[in-house]
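Let us begin with a simple case.
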Amino acid sequence: MIRIVAVFSCVSVFAGCAFFNPVRENHESRQVLELIGYAQKIASLQAEEQRRELNASSLMFSKDRGAYGRVRLALLLALPGTAFNDDARAAGLLEPLAGAAAVESSPGPMQQFAELLHAQIGERLREQRRAAQLKDQLEALKAIERKIIEREQARPK
């Protein structure tokens, strides 16, 4: 009798987990859609209003460090063309979610979105580093060219 109750209890627990997983994913899917709409809305605001939204999102994240607040703040920090754009900080905020999504066999929609956003921000950071490196190389070549011209002009004719 005890075995039957134990088996029934385990089956009930697993069935409950299976029931709540789609509910969680549906809720997270709605949150992801909400975040995308939010990012589009913020991109169209004036700089002062964007700053207010950044402050509100920072405050929300400081109170609740959950996935929603983390992704919301990262989205704001990653918005191109804003005065507060900080891709490195945005990538840092997303790192825990993106890393967890890579480890899990079936990450939820929020983790998948965080992983996608993290990958895009990472690529943008790599491109920025590469552009800076190319700029440095160009400046070095210009300096070499100036030295060659100076030597030619200083050489007696």
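The second case is a distinct protein. As before, the sequence precedes its structure tokens.
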Amino acid sequence: MNYRSSWMTEELDVFRDQFRKFLGKDLAPHAEAWRHQKLVDRSAWRALGEMGALLPSVPQIYGGLGATFAYDAAVIEDIESVVPEATAGVSVHSGIVAHYILNYGSEEQKLRWLPKMATGEFIGAIAMTEPGTGSDLQAVRTTARKQGNSYVINGQKTFITSGQTADLIIVVARTGGPGAKGLSLIVLEADGNEGFRRGRNLDKIGLHASDTSELFFQNTAFKLAERKTEAMIARVFIDWCVERLIAGELDTVTASMAKWWCSQKQVETADECLQLHGGYGYMQEYPISRMFVDARIQKIYGGTNEIMKLVIAQSL
């Protein structure tokens, strides 16, 4: 695809060239081991930190590069292309947790946590989802009761990215009455925190022991032509959104449109491409099988696509 994102710069080209080489040489060879052990090694986080790939748009005083969101977008795009096993953790760590702290934390908190997140010493996570609540945060039952200068948290969370390795966890908890206004974000340092316990590392979908038969392909070229067209549309739309975000002009409705439509097309594309591979597509040794499995969660986390459509509908 002969296309260059409008937000790319020569400086970012230099960074991405070195970054892609690093990903391919230093991280990609470990991807299979990470899949088997169901987590990314801490050494990889530290290596990403040394490359300046963690918290790139956070100010330098807090350990970041002080760059624009274009660097965040480039980092996630390159990780997804070369070593997608690390995408979810890094995107939550750098794109969500760090910016909650940057935007809402005190100066002491920012100086305490962000530099460690930028080096990979601390891994960040956000604990929103609870059993039975899904994306409806207004139904959160976890509570946080103020006691002196801290809070006592009681409750349960599930489906938490980096839940096994996180050092710093932002917990969505109820500190007031019902509804959204009664919710707060409480930051928990995992190390030495009595009463905090990690559950099992969840097994996600995949019929790993199932035997497979051959299938045959039809209409392959037409299907790929359709998907290439949709990929170009998505690319242009996302670039436009990135431009708006860098300029401070991206609104919630447009962001919701981008999230639901692009994640929906990702799932549809992965499903169709797996079908074209026949039975081989369901074998873990083929990259399409991982793309298929990993794509499905995109419609759920970060706010379900149903919630995204609700946000859009309210603007009509």
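Residues 205-220 have pLDDT under 50 and may be disordered. The first helix runs from residue 10 to 27.
Keep these points in mind for the review questions at the end of the chapter.
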